[in-house]
Amino acid sequence: MQMETVDNRPDRPQEECGVFGIYAHSKSSALTYYGLVALQHRGQEAAGIASTDGNRMYSHKGLGLLADVFKQGELENLNGHAAIGHVRYSTAGANTIQNAQPITLSTHTRNFAIAHNGNLVNAKWLRIRLEQEGSLFQTTTDTEVIAHLIAKANADSLADAVEAAAKQITGGFAVVILGNDELIAVRDPLGLRPMVLGQLGDAYVVASESCALETIGATLVRDVEPGELIHIGPDGMSSRRFAVRRQRRMCTFEHVYFARPDSDVDGWNVHTVRKRLGRILAKLHPADGDIVIGVPDSSISAAAGYAEESRIPYEMGLIKNKYIARTFIQPSQELRDTGVRLKLNAVRSIVEGKRVVLIDDSIVRGTTSRRIVQLLRSAGASEVHVRISSPPYVSPCHYGIDTATADQLIASTHDVGEICGMIEADSLAFLTVDELMEGFGFSGTTNVPFCNACFTRNYPTELVDSGLKEAHHELVHVGG
């Protein structure tokens, strides 16, 4: 069955970005760079670092991978004992240098830099209000909305100003703010976006994932709590709450797809969870096959779990080209089909004549799944049985993940049997939401600390901006 190609956006949910911050280290900028390298999977379209020596702030940012942005010795000019950094994925049409982060602001009361991971669901409403109050915007990011709220806050300290701003925003956010001689980190009250706290000697570190701490040799202290504001300065670290305690709603897709396998996110190791999900798939949704293969890289752990539980041999049937970035865009249908082969190659000697059980983490629009199935058949696979280590993706995320609109999500408009035919598989099965929660050790979905809105359409917050119209101009909404 022929599937219509909707647009050039990747057929995968895309994370908005990763953030990193460090205070009280003589090599703060270099360590921030290395931390961001560990977080590069969270964003490949822009990167930046801001630092401070206590008196002056320094900044450099640009479009592309870290190695592209910092290739002329720019790190040597980022002086100071504290720094924050950012790697960014943007929505289509919004990848401009103006939207690169960190954003720096200088007001009559204070100077600061800010970087943000996530999406606000009331950003458009706040932006209109701020513009009516006289604020001028240079970007289309939610981050600048937060920055203006901080700048306008009637507060004695930067921490108080950040708290005042945090109380006004709704959605998913993990934010780092750098002052002249202080570092502040805040996480949204539901814990939708991840953030961890670590230590490296006398230095404190915050990051989107624990893998960034491991990379620089820091020790994981704990996760930043939902609704928590951490302040780090000359007098050490302090913590306060800016929101009342609520039921956590951590994003399950961090464990399913986004986070690195070696990261620990909110107490669960990502590789361990993915492997459990693969075991559950094999137990509850078995397939007759000769080999099990996973779609690199995010599905390898689940494929290993499936193979162990089913006792079907795991094989490296698909090879990923590490040098093709996610930002690769094919301008035509012909080149778009070639693009899958540039990113993935099927190993003919492994799959030829075999019944293949193909493990993947999700199906969004279905175009990539169909091309991978076709790739395996072209390499001689006799059957291709697709198993997905998450439930059907039926609804867009509003908290920091870029997905297609609801009508472009294949599971939103088609049942499993129809999807199976559209991706040209011999069989197809997904986990249920209950089965997904089983991978985290929960029985059922009542009072679980996760946001599963992309699978259930039940959002944990009011979608304030939904349907909001700008009378004066069209705003391209992008997140952190």
Briefly summarize what is shown.
The protein has about 475 residues and is of the alpha+beta class.
Give a structural overview.
The chain is of the alpha+beta class. Helices cover 28% and strands 25% of the residues. The protein has 16 helices and 25 strands. A seven-stranded antiparallel β-sheet has the order 4-3-5-2-11-10-12. Strand 8 and strand 9 form a beta hairpin. Helix 1 packs across helix 6 and helix 4 crosses helix 5. It is globular. The relative contact order is 0.14. The N terminus is likely disordered.
Produce the secondary structure layout:
Layout lengths: L13 E2 L1 E7 L4 H11 L7 E7 L4 E7 L2 H4 L12 E7 L14 E4 L4 E10 L2 H10 L9 H11 L5 H9 L4 E8 L4 E5 L8 E5 L2 E5 L2 H7 L2 E5 L4 E6 L2 E6 L8 E2 L1 H6 L5 E2 L2 E2 H15 L6 E4 L5 H11 L7 E3 L12 H11 E3 L1 H4 L3 E6 L6 H12 L4 E6 L12 E2 L7 H4 L2 H7 L4 E4 L2 H6 L11 E2 L1 H4 L24
Helix pairs in contact: 1-6, 3-4, 4-5, 8-9
Separation, N- and C-terminal Cα atoms: 38 Å
Strand content: 25-35%
Read across the widest sheet, the strand sequence of neighbours is: 4-3-5-2-11-10-12
Count the helices. How many?
16
Helical fraction equals 25-40%
Count the E strands: 25
Largest sheet data: 7 strands, antiparallel
Q: Look at the structure and give the mean pLDDT.
A: 90
